Amino acid sequence: MTVIRGSVAQLSFVDFSRFLKEGKLALEVGSLVIRCRSIMPSVAKSIYTLYKHHPFQISPDFADFYVEVKAPANLRRWYRPQAEFLVDGERPFEPLPKDQAPALFEWGINWMVAASCHFWFTIHAASLERNGQVLILPAPPGSGKSTLCAALAFNGWRLFSDELTLLDIENMEAQACARPINLKNESIDIIRRFVTDAEWSPEVFDTLKGRVTHLAPPIDSVMKMRERAFPRWVVFPKYVADAEPSLTLRSKPQSCIDLAENALNYSILGETGFNLVTRLIDHCDCYDFIYSRLEDALLTFEQLAESEQLTRNGF
């Protein structure tokens, strides 16, 4: 059988929805091939919007994962419809309300990669590239990590990931995925004002995280997602209302501890995970960054990248 290939935008929405319903559509996300199925119109619309520039295959001979978002066969489908996420036929977590189905697709893929792809060292962190150098932004929820990531991705930095930083176990190269950026609550309004020409999935309300939506990645980031790069900076961001921007060096030992706490498969990899964290921190400059205004943040990281470029050029 001949496998059809192209970018999602080359398909009409009607054809895209048909392939998705039949379970024939496979998205290429970085080096992963994810075969997808859903008969839910909201899921089809969201994927078509958010992955418009990603490569696809129809009926490939091989896929790394087979995922499905569908209505579960339970009594609640009659009065409180739900959606469930399946990966290779297994349901890893409980169903969610049906209106959260588009977001569930994204959250499910995050879980799938974090739970299964241990050939990478996986850090709960955003990552972006500039001049061949990767910036890693690990941070707990509420730190402004995704807001900062979205602003940088649409202002001169190439998006690798807003949620999962993936490093090659052997050589520490970062793998780009350029998947949609997850934003919530006030961050949605901030980035809508800041990035005026982007595409969004429908907003979902009353989730455990509040109001949620996803922002389609920049086209250039998708086109270059096969290009890897090495980490250069590890920056722990923190949003503080009305604070002046402050980028300060942090100690290597504390950075090791904090990065290990953000690594999702650190304990699974054991000694390999420990060695990777220490190698990464040895290789990178580590900072704390406090900010309140995105304009200040962009200037700070612009100066950081320019300083590194001047150093590499011998100035």
UniProtKB/TrEMBL annotation:
One of its GO terms (molecular function) is kinase activity. Coiled coil: none annotated. It comes from the Bacteria. Keywords: Kinase, Transferase. This is HprK-related kinase A. It comes from Methylomonas rivi.
